[in-house]
Amino acid sequence: MKLRQNILVKNPVAVMTGRRGSLARAGQVDIRISDGLIHEMGSDLVAHPGERVIDASDCVVYPGWVNTHHHLVQNLLKAVPAGLNQGLEEWLASVPYPRLARFTPELVRIAARLGMAELLLSGVTTCADHHYLYHAGGSTESGDVLFDVAEEFGMRFVLCRGGALESAASHPGLSRTALKPESLDAMLGDVERLKARYHQSASDAMRRVVIAPTTPTFSLPPGLLGELAHAARSMDLRLHSHLSETQNYVRFCREKYNCLPVEFVAEHEWLGPDVWFAHMVHLQPSEIRLLAQTGTGVSHCPVSNSRLGSGVAPIPQMAAAGVPISLGVDGVASNESGSMTNEVNTAWLLHRATQGASATEAEDVIHWASAGGSQVLGLGAVGSLEVGQAADLVLYDINHPRFFGFHDVALAPVVAGEPIAVRYSIISGCVVVDRGVIPGLDLARLRSDARDGVQQLLIELDNAG
Ligand SMILES: [Zn+2]
User: Fold this and answer.
1) Which of 271, 337, 339, 428 is the most buried (most CB within 10 A)?
2) CA–CA separation, 344 vs 315, rounded Å?
3) What pTM value is reported for the model?
4) What is the Å distance from ligand 1's center to 305 Cα?
């Protein structure tokens, strides 16, 4: 359990709020934090007795990043040689799926600790993890392990409870795993258990549960999609999944269901402001309109999409249409960096490369990665720096030659990207990165645990060359 402090952040070089337009910048204001909330923002605030004063005179202050799509277990599967030059389907079949049965709760814990450390040190304060390590007759303990690790690191955490159901077996990757899909009752039973134990409904929740089959097309029979949607709405839980990541995915949907993927999920009540999908790289204009009309969100994962050669999502068009946009790092087996700052930098650059220099503005990308993410997750009290909001904020260290020549150093984390150090990170008033380090984290142990974990996940495929 992290200790909540009353804090005064003094003399920042600049404060970005995560809001849009003229509200995107708050200037050089001090920020007072009490009871886990932003209590006051203004010039020359004077410290109250007992307040911890943090000198921000070498720092720019941002809202903590809200990462809306991750797979923490993949933190022990970075740069697996067999999958380095493969597209999504082949990569799934050679990297994550053949190893899923090997993930003991202890390996999940090691992977999650690695991932949480990397996320915190890249400015993330909220993480939604799409966790699909569930199978018939298997333990459901790994979901609890993730909440436990989130508690250890002080991360605001959303468990997107994934998995596959019943007769699903059409995905090429699934045939490579020894795991058999669960029943609907088993999945919903575990969701109810997780909800009772962890879920908080408030807009500043530290813990959330979401219903999230791995894909709506491959992971379950279509008839069960609607049942999951009904179950989620009756339990007041949100829905999440992958969608339209590759052209093959769209082709499969057209051939099997004679419609586009967004039309397919619409038929099964999987659109609305309580739903968000990762990727959506390949969309028709009619699908973008449908997403915008229903308030369905996207988790944009540009690095993973680039790494797997999936394509570039039409994010500027989606944003212009009014689709809620957020960013996710995706699993690090298809993105060797779990850094949100790297993701933000890539999002800023990539659409310019394909659509011209006016395609993205730095302030918009900051909004997508902070307040945009909290909108998609239904956590309206986080993601922006304003009085009354949860105190989730990050101080980036700009005292480095990389940043000395900047005219507008407020934008450094977005336009220069990594490396940039998080000097402090604060979540709900708790200091989770303190003077550049995660308090209490034994790095030597983390490193040796990771080495052991990688050894345990080697399979014959890796030795075949
Ligand atoms: Zn994913």
Assistant:
1) 339
2) 13
3) 0.97
4) 10
Question: Could you report the per-residue pLDDT of 272-330, keeping only the tens digit for each?
Answer: 999 999 999 999 999 999 999 999 999 999 999 999 999 999 999 999 999 999 999 99
CA 311 vs CA 339, 370, 417: distances in Å: 20, 24, 21
C-alpha 386/C-alpha 15 separation (Å) is 11
Burial 31-70 (b: 16+ CB within 10 A, else e): bbbbebbbbebeeebeeeeebeebebebbbbbbbbbbbbb
Helix (H) or strand (E) holding 120: helix 105-120
Q: DSSP character for 369?
A: I
Domains and CATH numbers, the chain: 7-60+389-434 (2.30.40.10), 65-377 (3.20.20.140)
Cα(93) to centroid(ligand 1), Å: 14
Residue 277 CA to ligand 1 center (angstroms) comes to 10
Query: What are the residues whose beta carbons fall under 8 Å from the beta carbon of 213, sequence distance 6 or more?
Result: 162, 163, 164, 165, 187, 219, 220, 225, 228, 241
> pLDDT > 90: what percent of the chain?
93
